[in-house]
């Protein structure tokens, strides 16, 4: 697997969409398990589009593009280090708050400079 990193604008762009979806009442629309599965499959954007139609526009990040691949690699790597420790490390205890978990992963990526 290549070491592609997303642009900071990609991370923040997706973060704004996730925040908007939460604000529109979708806090419990995605579970931790669903999020982890989508990340492991490299299908997060596609999963979110199908789970919450009309809430996201990932057309800038075509499947296979550097930004699509880089985002998935960085977020999946962070997820792997935090899976099972969400409450202790991130303060998230409701396993139905997958969008909050995704936002935490994005913040973690920003904090660790996992971007270009």
Question: How would you describe the overall organization of this protein?
Answer:
The chain is an all-alpha fold and 116 residues long. The protein has one domain. The protein contains six helices and no strands. The protein has helices at residues 8-26, 32-40, 44-51, 66-82, 86-90, 98-111. α1 packs antiparallel against α6 and α2 (32-40) crosses α3 (44-51). The two termini are 18 Å apart. The model has no long low-confidence stretch (mean pLDDT 95).
Tag the structure with descriptive keywords.
mainly alpha; globular; 116 residues; 62% helix; 6 helices
Give the rounded overall mean pLDDT.
95
If you compute it from the alpha carbons, what radius of gyration comes out, rounded to the nearest whole angstrom? 13 Å
Class of secondary structure makeup: mainly alpha
| Number of structurally distinct domains | 1
Distance between the termini: 18 Å
**Total strand segments:** 0
Taken from the alpha-carbon principal axes, the silhouette is globular
Number of helices: 6
Order of helices and strands: HHHHHH
Strand % is: under 5%
Largest sheet: none
Q: Please bin the fraction of helical residues.
A: 55-70%
Low-confidence stretches: none
